[in-house]
Design goal:
This protein is an all-alpha fold and 300 residues long. It folds into 2 domains: 65 residues; 208 residues, MetI-like (MetI-like fold, Orthogonal Bundle). Helices cover 74% and strands 1% of the residues. The longest helix has 44 residues. The mean pLDDT is 84.
Length: 300
């Protein structure tokens, strides 16, 4: 009886601790969302800035005197820069990730899987400042000498970001392919299909929802990355890049560069919080997309 009572106490203790941890996480997330939302909306409620002007204007000078037209907090340059660099990085990274995932899960021998996948996952643990420093020391001079311009450009930021997105997308794609039931392979081979026909016609369509999840996670990381991209893109506010060799600015880079130089409650500070709120909304949209894609899996 004593052992039974001790077991019940231990079970109750474990249940209580895990419940407290779960509730704490929920409370922290709600508090973060409420705080960022409150600070982000201050630009439009307190400072009376138009939402349309904030999203579509490319003029960013929150300290401009009233005699010269008043402060401007148009964030379109940063929004455009983030979307452009992240989209190009995804264009570079997604095909390579898909090819690597297919090789690891369906083609490589057993020893190749044991070596290649851990090496790819090791890239996730490399600090972003290392990627940025390598890009600044190697990639930027190469672009400047080979293609012209300043070197710090949309192209440099896209390449660095694509390398950072690659392990995340690849790992999720590999897991999606390995999660497929072996019956799919066996049925395809039994019907006389070759290995490539099986991969292309059977496995990829079945794993596509999970692979798209990896793409969305990679894009979410790309939009949220700050330091590495900031080091190689030039950070030129007020100028919309018109070519891959032009410098650019992103939402995360303007926050990290200017947040420490603004006074709490001013228009400049509130506008940065509004950009942070926009990033939060984009992240929430990505989460919803992942949930919707997960419900459309064609295998269980």
């Amino acid at each position: 009886m004593k052992g039974v009572g001790s077991k019940k106490i231990n079970e109750l203790f474990g249940k209580t601790i895990t419940t407290i941890c779960g509730i704490s996480v929920i409370i922290i997330v709600i508090m973060l969302v409420v705080f960022i939302t409150y600070k982000g909306l201050s630009t439009f409620i307190i400072n009376k800035v138009s939402v349309l002007e904030f999203l579509t204007s490319s003029s960013w000078n929150p300290e401009l005197p009233s005699s010269e037209g008043g402060p401007k907090v148009g964030a379109f340059v940063f929004i455009y820069g983030s979307l452009l660099i992240s989209s190009l990085a995804l264009l570079f990274s997604a095909p390579m990730s898909a090819g690597t995932a297919i090789f690891i899960s369906e083609i490589a021998p057993q020893w190749g899987q044991k070596v290649l996948q851990p090496v790819i996952e090791l890239f996730v643990g490399i600090p972003s400042v290392v990627y940025g420093w390598v890009g600044l020391s190697v990639l930027v001079p190469f672009i400047r000498d080979s293609f012209g311009g300043f070197g710090m450009s949309v192209l440099a930021g896209s390449i660095v970001l694509s390398i950072m997105m690659f392990p995340t997308i690849t790992s999720v794609m590999v897991d999606s392919l390995k999660a497929l039931p072996s019956d799919l392979n066996e049925a395809s081979y039994a019907l006389g299909a070759t290995r490539w026909q099986t991969i292309w016609k059977v496995l990829l369509p079945a794993a596509m929802p999970g692979m798209f999840t990896g793409v969305i996670l990679g894009l979410a990381r790309g939009l949220g990355e700050a330091l590495a991209v900031q080091m190689v893109i030039g950070n030129m506010p007020g100028k919309i890049p018109t070519s891959l060799l032009d410098p650019a600015h992103t939402m995360t880079s303007i926050i990290t560069m200017d947040m420490g130089n603004t006074v709490m409650g001013t228009l400049a500070n509130n506008a940065l919080w509004s950009i942070a709120l926009l990033l939060l909304l984009i992240s929430l949209i990505f989460i919803l997309l992942i949930r919707l894609i997960g419900k459309r899996r064609i295998y269980r």
